[in-house]
Write a structure and sequence with these properties.
This protein has 248 residues and is α+β, with helices and mostly antiparallel strands. The protein is built from 5 helices and 9 strands, in the order βαββαβββαββααβ. It has 2 domains: 103 residues, Alpha-Beta Plaits, CATH 3.30.70.580; 130 residues, Alpha-Beta Plaits.
Length: 248
């Protein structure tokens, strides 16, 4: 048996997230259908995460197994892209060790959240339009407080079945790029809805509705009801997933 990683990118607007589910359109199902058409057998995949409905990925990995080695990986990528819908693309397919796991071997993930400060019809599905004054300095100072904590229950979707709400934040900062305000966050793992809840709460800091001290109090409370709203899915992108060298 041979195990392969596939590197994907997708626009999530038309999908109910990565994970396949009954009566819902998913990226995973589209990928498995394409792989089955190419390889001639039912092919199951495991993704590096579970992006929600409407969330996008510039870099996403999944693994799958085949009985026989793929002779020409570039040709497979070409054929996959002919089959996959136009909003999903395959960048590469490469063999990894048989024990490699796209989800559990990931050592970090990076997300970016895009906020459009100027109404732009071409960013309807890929950025959250937000009008008004924001104090970016305060938002960045509050974001730095995330480094002081590991339990992010306050920013997690309720009733999720995970063994811990602890995460190690490796990067968290806001920066401006033309008319876009971008929040970039990197961690060893993320909770369901965590990035969108953090962004929504930091926006309250930027609007002057919360102080930096109150933001930290929300983290310490471990109470989702005290945190801000979850910003819309269309502005969220998974942009990087990192793996240790030993799985390749």
């Amino acid at each position: 048996m041979h195990r392969y990683f596939i590197k994907l990118a997708y626009k999530g607007t038309a999908y109910h997230g990565w994970q396949k589910q009954d009566n819902a359109h998913s990226i995973q199902q589209e990928l498995e259908n394409a792989l089955q058409a190419l390889l001639g057998s039912t092919t199951e995949t495991l993704g590096c995460g579970r992006t929600d409905a409407g969330v996008h990925a510039r870099e996403f990995y999944a693994h799958f197994d085949t009985e026989t080695r793929i002779a020409d990986d570039k040709f497979i990528v070409y054929k996959l892209n002919k089959i996959l819908p136009k909003d999903i693309s395959a960048a590469s397919v490469f063999e990894v060790k048989a024990s490699a796991n796209a989800r559990f071997d990931a050592i970090s993930r990076t997300y970016q959240y895009y906020i459009s400060r100027k109404k732009n019809p071409f960013e309807i599905d890929t950025a959250y339009y937000l009008y008004g004054v924001l104090d970016i300095g305060k938002m960045n100072r509050a974001a730095k407080l995330l480094f002081n904590h590991v339990d992010f229950t306050s920013f997690s979707k309720s009733n999720t079945q995970v063994f811990t709400n602890n995460c190690t934040i490796l990067k968290a900062e806001w920066y401006q790029k033309d008319a876009l305000l971008i929040f970039e966050i990197k961690a060893n793992r993320f909770l369901r809805n965590m990035v969108r809840a953090i962004v929504g709460t930091l926006l309250q800091v930027g609007k002057g509705e919360l102080s930096e001290e109150e933001f930290e109090t929300i983290i310490l409370s471990k109470n989702r009801q005290l945190a801000g709203f979850s910003v819309p899915a269309e502005g969220l992108f998974l942009t990087q997933v990192e793996y240790p060298d030993h799985i390749f």
